[in-house]
Amino acid sequence: MLSQLSSSVDKSSLMPLKKKILLVEDEALFARAVVKRLQKAGFECEHAESLSDARLLIKQFEPDMALLDMRLPDGNGLDLLSEFIARNINTIVMTAFGDVSDAVNAIKLGAIDYLKKPIDLEELLLIIQKNEKTTELQTSLDYSRQRNAVANDSVQLIGESTPMQSVRQQITRIAQLSALSDAVQPTVLITGETGTGKDVVARFLHGSCANHDKPFVHVDCASLPAELIESELFGHEKGAFTNAVSSRPGLIESAEDGTLFLDEIGELPLGLQAKLLNVLERRMVRRLGSTKERPVNARIIAATNRDLYQMSNEGRFRSDLYYRLNVITMKMPPLRDRGSDVLLLANYFRQLTEKRYALPHHEFSAAALMAMQTYHWPGNVRELRHQISRAVLMCTQSMISELDLGLPQVGMNQVASVLQGDSQVTLDDAEKAMLLNALEQSRNNVSKAARLLGITRMTMRYRMDKHGISV
């Protein structure tokens, strides 16, 4: 079946398209030689002898590049150059005259290069191939930037709890600092348990600052292979080690003027921590096998779920690097301390899943909502997202029940006791019952009751006032 399907596909559609080059040249003998050499090199080439012929071929042939002679039978090549530039056609101009004023004017108007006749065909081919690589790299970079821009624009910080309000205030302040000065921005260290959304905050912070249109480079220090991590971070020159067949910039250098996000930095080997400290201190990076240093202008954000202070005391993390990273610290709260943010996040992830898979709208039952608020969420927001996505995908009804969530039976006894025998119970009734049950178990100790429910004391007080509960 697979072979039949593969054979039905037009194989020509899988081949890379040839680059189209339009040659505008009135010397027939030279033109034939150029066309023959370019076709041999794998390009698709058309020839025009005049400006009028070229204007027709622009529409019919739709070239990617043009080779343009300056002196033509019906005018000057500069008259056609503006049309090439307007259509984003890279143009190399050619002139047979000693005076290069036309060529200089052409460069000013947007031509990528110029050549004086007589022209060496191999030199011409090298210039064309060099431009082709430059164009591909620029296209790839533009795509990468657009992709990052879309990703950053779609990042949202969901939550109205006090801890999340504090996070937002810190992000706002950091963005203000970024706008006040062009100086290198201070390093930000984001801490918190696994799954709390440290990477989301890093992207949100990048999108909130002045460099939001620059690259965002995410480096997962825990997943980089030990034998390649130094080369990946710092880059290398050709011949620096076996299989280094070409020079390559590292991830630090690739961040340019944007943001370098070092995720799980606590996993970085001690040997590389000294090199990273040097980058942070001097804002310079040197590739493997090179004697040249390159400037690092990117904002650096690091994240970890480890206690770097304790690790530094134990000799497992450089204390000087820890203090250098610990300029501005943001602590991401665990989901169990975010109160009703659980429900906001659950609805957000539900909507995302429904939209992604074109599914109908679902609702959470009262028991499902209480189960989510009662559960401890050891995996934090990441666990919540996976559980909600699974429930939405597998639920065949319009109502998602507590069983669809597949959570451990934590706190489900009090949920069941409220709902049992009363199909008309409201969410407020169920919530009030849970609060009273928790207060009874804690002997009216509000702090302990809050811990039992997995919410903050402030949230507990707010909900008690809401239901008129006093102790």
UniProtKB/TrEMBL annotation:
Signal peptide: none annotated. Residues 20-132 form the Response regulatory domain. It comes from the Bacteria. InterPro entries: AAA+_ATPase, AAA_lid_NorR, CheY-like_superfamily, Homeodomain-like_sf, HTH_Fis, P-loop_NTPase, Sig_transdc_resp-reg_receiver, Sigma_54_int. Keywords: ATP-binding, Nucleotide-binding, Phosphoprotein, Transcription, Transcription regulation. Residues 157-393 form the Sigma-54 factor interaction domain. The modification 4-aspartylphosphate is found at D69. The keyword Transcription applies. SMART domains: AAA, REC. The keyword 4Fe-4S does not apply. It holds the Pfam family Sigma54_activat. PANTHER family: TRANSCRIPTIONAL REGULATORY PROTEIN. This is Sigma-54-dependent transcriptional regulator. It comes from Methylophilus glucosoxydans.
